[in-house]
Amino acid sequence: MVFDFDTPTNRLGTDSIRWDSFDSKEVLPLWVADMDFKSPPCVIEAVSNRVQQGIYGYTHSPHQMNAMIADYLKEQYQWQVNPDWIVILPSVVSGLYTTVQQLTNNDESVLVPNPIYHHLRLACSSANRQFQEMSLELKDGRWVLPPRNELSNLITDKTTLALFCNPQNPGSTVFTREELKEFGNFCVEHDLWICSDEIHAGLVLDENKKHIPLASISKDISEKTITLMSLNKTFNFPGIGLAWAVAENPLLQKAIQVGLHQTIAPPSLLAYTATMAAIQEGEPWRQELIQYLRGNRDLVQEKIKSIDGLSICKMEGSYLAWIDCTNLHHHNPYQLFLDHGLATSPGSQFNREQFVRLNFGTQKSRLEQALNIIEHCAKL
Ligand SMILES: Cc1ncc(COP(=O)(O)O)c(C=O)c1O
Questions:
Q1: What fold does the segment set 65-280 form as a domain?
Q2: What spacing in Å lies between the alpha carbon of 309 and ligand 1's midpoint?
Q3: 357-376: string of b/e by CB count within 10 Å (b at 16+)?
């Protein structure tokens, strides 16, 4: 490997949400979704050069930015988008909240997966919108959406928007073309807008899968969809933060811009620099990252499968293992692991109490330590 993913990094005292929320001498914090790896050297160098300039005035999105993102989407996902369809945002989360606010009225409701990254639900509840949950089902070891007849039972004539997450967090499903077609066509037939959170797109681990943007499936689906993307996760700079929305439909382009530069601040100037450097030069690092994460995924999968009382699905994408602790018969598996020195994300955050989510975007030595704690707890 050219790049170093093995040397432990020290994030203590950096105001890291993940590392500085516990007493880390006592607790190994593998919860919030950022990684313990330095960003690619190309990103560090570009950001350092920009910092050295010493002037940090108001900065607009670089003129070439949208075209650069469009080229990247074509190269990575064979998705042809017009640069004019792209709207730059400070974060995916702000895009989720704006979408729900703008695409639904007070008396309308939203379809949301369950389990799901909590902000998809919170975007609905904070706007006082009703939501119906699409309970993901475990099929052939993968968490998939319910079949069409079940989806039909969930919606009413007041349902106007579906939120979706691909790769799925938690659960790590990388949806297939057939699954996307089925869900997208269902939404089109029922006249639902779609907001597809694809922030984990660059982190497909399964050797037989690739990320397919939902909106790339057909023009009909694209006309209904706002896709939210970012390089924050893949290149590990969420603390700098930049995202973008892709919307072919001018109505949706307009909706996603509401509040921008008013209540929603634009990205910082360093965010443009980091994102452009990652697009232009980050691919060799990303390829090695994927190799490293595959090794960690295999380690997690083998260990968890060997422990009585725990089970795990296929991990197709991202670095978040979704571990089913139901058969441990403990009232709070999250607390059990925490009491023994490992912070995971509690399943309750995603609406499934008997699960925990383990972040394996860390050095192998740390991951081994975490897995030993889990094994020890399961034997108690
Ligand atoms: C599915 C999903 N969407 C959005 C985010 C956060 O995105 P951002 O930091 O751009 O707001 C996360 C972070 O964990 C996530 O997992």
A1: Aspartate Aminotransferase; domain 2 (3.40.640)
A2: 30
A3: bbbbbbbeebbeebbebbee
